[in-house]
Design a protein that fits this description.
The longest helix is centred in the first third of the chain and has 20 residues, at 66-85. It is globular and about 55 Å long. It has helices at residues 13-26, 66-85, 104-114, 179-184, 194-205, 207-210, and strands at residues 2-5, 34-39, 44-49, 54-60, 91-102, 117-127, 133-138, 149-153, 158-173, 188-192, 214-218. By secondary structure, the protein is of the alpha+beta class. Helices cover 29% and strands 36% of the residues.
Length: 228
Amino acid sequence: MSILKPKVIVLSIPLLLATIIALVLTSPLIAGRIQSQGKTDSFEYSIQGDKERSVYVTVGVNMDDADARQKYIDVNIQRGNELVNNKQNGLVPVQITFIRPVSVSEVKQLVESTGFIVDSFLLVGHSTISQQRGTRIQFSSLDSAVPERELIDPNTGEEIVFEGVMVLKGDVPSNTYGLGQWLANDLTYLVDTSEVEMRELLNERHANEIVGKEIEISIPSPFWDLDW
């Protein structure tokens, strides 16, 4: 799936949460869903889900606010180092945002050397006609076919030429050779382990809402705000 985006549009957290709530309250298809909200020192979150099957959690940060963004980054650095220092060596969920598009071959090398298990990744590039920025998300490993370009408009021949991977999501060992290597890598802008904290919060604050359910957590990335 590709998205062409001419400029960055970021909803404030209160507006985003209000929009989610409005959709829940006004859609008859979502009747009977649970709805909760909460926050930590560095992010806010909302919870939706079927009472019988699944829980969907959205973590939100106002990336337009430089202080809020930096605090979110700092908290993730601290949490990441704590996970490494705990020496549990288990897999932890992580989302990597690079400082710039990184070639697929280079990301593959990093993935292989750190034991990273890829769930999905985001390619970024530019239009061949308008030069607008575009993206493509793939829910697969890097061993699958990765396109170098993609046709957007068959009438004009407009394509997105992909320049590399900007966001990488999956699981990595929480040791010096896994998560520790990502934290120390100069190519990373944000090594996000917020899902670890979010799952702990779900157990502590929302145990009755999640018992027996599949949990899906969406983590934000500031990649649109970076220079690429």
